[in-house]
Amino acid sequence: MTTSSSGGAVLRAPRRRSAPATWAWWLLAAGAPLLFLGVFFAWPVVALVLQGFFADDGGGGRVLDLSGFGEVLSQPRTWRVVGQTLAQATVGTALSVLLGLPAAYVLYRCRFPGRTVARALVTVPFVLPTVVVGVAFRSVLAPSGPLGFLGWEESFAGIVLALVFFNYAVVVRTVGGLWERLDPRAEQAARSLGATPWQAFRTVTLPALGPAIASAASVVFLFCATAFGVVLVLGGMRYGTIETEIWVRTTQFLDLRAAAVLSILQLVVVTGALLVSARLRARRERALHLSSDLSAAHRFSWRSAADVVPAGVTAVVVAGLLVLPLAGLVARSFQGPDGSWGLDNYVALGTTGGRNALTVTVWGATATSLRTAALAATIAVVVGGLVALVVSRRPRSRGLRRAVGTLDAVFMLPLGVSAVTVGFGFLITLDRPLGFDVDLRTSGLLVPIAQAVVAIPLVVRTVLPVLRAIDPRLREVAATLGAPPGRVLRSVDAPLAARSLGLAIGFAFAVSLGEFGATSFLARPDAATLPVVIYRLIGLPGAENYGMALAASVVLATLTATVMMVAERLRGDAGGGEF
């Protein structure tokens, strides 16, 4: 199309990118992550599942054999482990929700000085490595610790407390995010009709929060049911779960068949729990009146029992459940093997422990962890960023919309499959991946790849809300003016998503830094990461080794918290991010 101006010049409309080129670009953006997920997640997990259904026929082939299920399921130990898994997950989820609701109200419905700092403090436990959490509670609950009089060392109660510590922020952030925007006029109307604050909350506010509570509870149950480091450190063999039992059967008994059957059983338990949660959440979902303001919070009042009581509960929980274990860990890390106070444990981090207990020093393991986490975060951000970019689009075709929704759900699957299962699957599949003559199990790439698989869902959930909030008309205008997809991405999406991408990098780096489940299977002794070294030190006799474990845990916690603080600062006031 051409038009003539008054000066006789001919103006040509910008030439739009050809449809085949655009489709090729989007297919590449979706295909590359799918290939990565297929090779490094779906294939190992499926191969692991098949281990439970097939056995060697003696001639190099495989035959269908379900005897492994009968053997594993007939053992009382199996059902004891399943019962402990469900019990710990159920009680941990219930306590996380009950204790998290008051904090969600105080931190998101009330305004007071220092609220931002309080929110950050509550969020810190969620990003701490599970091994650190286990060591922190073990130091507090030990007979010589401040809570030793409770007798909860290596107990069901101690494990549950640690699970609540780890998942408390999930409930606070998920429920608080909705509560902050909930229109207060419905509750005010109930109060004006004579309802007490409790009655108004129970009949008006609580039903409105139902979907958020159900969503948070499902995520917490998932994390509790697949917890590994916390249970392994605090429970040992006595209070093991399906997750730790898979690790024991593989690393100690070399019973891969039984471990595969247990992995299948875990998948069934987790899938069933998620389906029940989704159904309950769907029943409670309804249209809500949300405040048009950024926040419907009110100023905190010391004269209102509705504010003071939740604030008191929150203060007790934060001080006793969150601050005390971390403070106890830091304090005991300065207590030397002879009971004196000083830096002996930190000085010993440059050694291999008592009687050369380790292959590498703690500082060497720290350097390995940082390098591995940097590579894992890079992979996770690239793959997760591409997924978020594709899923954030709103195609007009119903079929394409379903495909986008399916892609979003597929890349959340790593949250529903334990890292132990992923690591175990790597061991049995990646000796010759796709027929290439290379054994990835002996390479240094397998650990960061496994950590990236675990971190990708968090990257997607952090970046996706920001990309979805971008007005699609901005992209349409840029494309109409002739910008190719890559130029649209650089000029429209990238500037707006930059801060959330910084937070995603922080999440990916922190999660990779503390990942223990898959890494415990895959890390070589000479390239052990910091969580693996900490667990080895805990399992060794001697006060010197235990003191080093405490000091190393403080180092790991400090690194993780620093990474998240930098990421939050880079994000600034930008929105985005969801659990």
UniProtKB/TrEMBL annotation:
Coarse class of the protein's main subcellular location: membrane
CDD domains: TM_PBP2 (cd06261)
Protein name per the record: Iron ABC transporter permease
Alphabetized InterPro entries for the sequence: MetI-like (IPR000515), MetI-like_sf (IPR035906)
Localisation: Cell inner membrane; Cell membrane
Pfam families: BPD_transp_1
PROSITE patterns in the record: ABC_TM1
Family membership noted in the UniProt record: Belongs to the binding-protein-dependent transport system permease family.
First and last residue of the signal peptide: none
